[in-house]
Design a protein that fits this description.
This protein is mostly helical. It is built from eight helices and two strands. Helix 1 runs antiparallel to helix 7 and helix 5 crosses helix 7. The mean pLDDT is 94.
């Protein structure tokens, strides 16, 4: 069974990676459909202070996190900023990077492999109760749906991601989940069916 789990994870990881290329890359180009560029006439107004101030790479939020919730004056100021807006969540990388960085792609493939291996392990724990291919695909799609709703809808609620972006993320996650489910359910079978 261990070899089947590894095989399922490898095949799934490759399929998920290819789906990511189709979805985010030049085929469907969902990046351009789900994310907005900075307004061209305001871009340098936003970037110049970041570059000049040598802002370090990090995850930023505005209004910033409340460091000491017991500080009533700071809490009131934070609440005022939240109510006044804007609110943003910014993943910032100070130095540039190649859009075709092989390390980034390898890390993404490894991430897909780990997710697929976890899913294959989950299926292996209950595969004896799921004799049909459709039931195994269904279980893995349910797991994918749970993950997509948890992360993408949660980000829309808590981090102000737009509904369009959250729906687009969910479509990507469910597409990757379907690729993983179809491959894994074909490879990880009940002992009698695996012969």
């Amino acid at each position: 069974m261990a070899l089947r789990l590894l095989l399922a994870a490898v095949v799934s990881a490759v399929l998920m990676f290819l789906w990511g290329f189709v979805y985010w890359g030049p085929v469907l180009n969902m990046t351009a459909r789900l994310m907005e560029p900075l307004p061209a006439d305001r871009e340098m107004d936003i970037l110049a202070p970041m570059r000049a101030g040598e802002m370090p790479t990090g995850m930023y939020v505005y209004p910033g996190p409340l460091v000491d919730p017991r500080d009533e004056a700071a809490a009131a100021e934070w609440e005022r900023k939240v109510e006044e807006g804007p609110i943003f969540h910014l993943a910032y990388r100070r130095s540039g990077a190649s859009p075709m960085d092989p390390v980034m792609f390898a890390t993404g493939l490894l991430h897909n492999f780990v997710v697929a291996l976890l899913a294959a392990g989950l299926l292996a724990m209950v595969v004896h109760t799921l004799p049909s291919y459709a039931s195994r695909v269904g279980l893995l799609m349910l797991a994918s749906l749970i993950a997509a709703v948890w992360t993408s809808v949660g980000a829309a609620i808590w981090w102000a991601h737009t509904a369009r972006y959250a729906a687009g993320q969910m479509a990507y996650e469910l597409g990757a989940g379907l690729a993983m489910a179809l491959a894994t359910a074909a490879i990880v079978k009940p002992p009698a069916a695996a012969r």
